Amino acid sequence: MKRRRILATVAMLAAGSALVACSSDEGGSDASNCTNTITKQNLPVVTMWGWYPNTQLVVDNFNKQNDEVQVCWTNVGQGSDEYDKFQTAISAGTGAPDVIMVEMDRIPTFQIQGALVDIRKYGFDAVKANYGEGAWKDVSVGDAIYGVPVDGGPVGMIYRKDIFDKYAITPPKTWAEYEQAAQKVKDAGGPLFGDLGANVPALTMALQIQKGATPFTYDPAQPKSIGVKLNDQASKDVLDYWGGLARKGLVGTQDQFTPEYISGVINGNYATYISAAWAPGYLTGAGVGKGQDTGKFAVAPLPQWDPSNPVQVNWGGSAFSVTKQAKKPELAAKVAYGLYADNESLTDGWTNQIIFPLNLTALNDPKFVDLKVAFFNGQQANKEVYVPAANAYKGVAYSPFGQYYLDAMTKQVSEIIKGSVSGSQAADRLQEDVAKYAKEQGFTVQ
């Protein structure tokens, strides 16, 4: 979820970061310094960077089951720490691994630099049916495939059952009902109904997409041209809606992922939390649902703008990509396709709330679908909310300068919160800012 702009800062990153590994004869980072132990010494080795908490198990499972190639795994840091090191390796032309774990919305950033391999010719047809349309769309740039999806974040509405019961609220099915319920709770002296956080711009983007926005269109066949459409009516409607809720005092304006926000969630300061399928694991780790608030949470489908035409959205997700520095991309692709694809690894991932799996073997597994989620007091949240949302998700075209856009969105939502601009005005400012930046990077803006 943490990302960093790159197009304008390649030189700075190259100067400011140190290479984490030397290149080997096989290409990529050094295969002599693995975190894991490789037991099949006679096989070729593919190097990999990744940070999933159970990567050791995932790599060991792959290596045990494979007699063609072995994985040498190194954890060089999570998120932007890894990306900085990868950017350094891209700039230097050496030091990158053969396979790298990346968040899906980072793929265009590295693809536009020629740092990733289109894996379609390396066995894609054999695994295509293992993932849904939306999952493949999120790892694509144009028609090319630059990653193998692993986990995602279908969005739902977590809510406090005790607050809903106290104020006789049923889970709203539309955003109009959401506002009505928020007003009812406020009028009765209840807590805030939700939160408009400036520091979750990716969620704001997802909610705009749900309304019908298409922020970016990009075709690598025309690498210097990009569509930037951030102030269309759908985008304005969503910002005006949430800005209006904040202005009326129906939702808070606290940054999320902060101790203050988590304290508010625990204390019942918010009736709802709009978030992704990974949220229960995050909240549990942050101490939510373990004390006075145990058993008080449930989840419902994301409210819709038009219930007759529901749209599901996603927030977050990662993939394994093959880097251009891999001298044997066919072997690297075999690793990318095979990591986190076996039943044992997938089951460990979703059982321990490490991933929300996108592999259909797990996504359709009755044990996963019918799971009674402890955080939701035994509710079958996957069956009722998250799996249907994941199956209905159609995917997004991300921008090659996504971090700049997200930073710019954060600034504009902050201005909405301060009351200095309306949602529509913020959308216009965002369009002007990002379009200008795109032109500075050499794009023709459509």
UniProtKB/TrEMBL annotation:
Segment forming the signal sequence: 1-20
Origin: domain of life: Bacteria
UniProt-listed PROSITE patterns: PROKAR_LIPOPROTEIN
Keywords on record: Signal
Keyword Signal: yes
Pfam families to which the protein is assigned, alphabetical: SBP_bac_1
InterPro entries: Bact_solute-bd_prot1, SBP
Name the record gives this protein: Carbohydrate ABC transporter substrate-binding protein (CUT1 family)
Protein species of origin: Micromonospora pisi
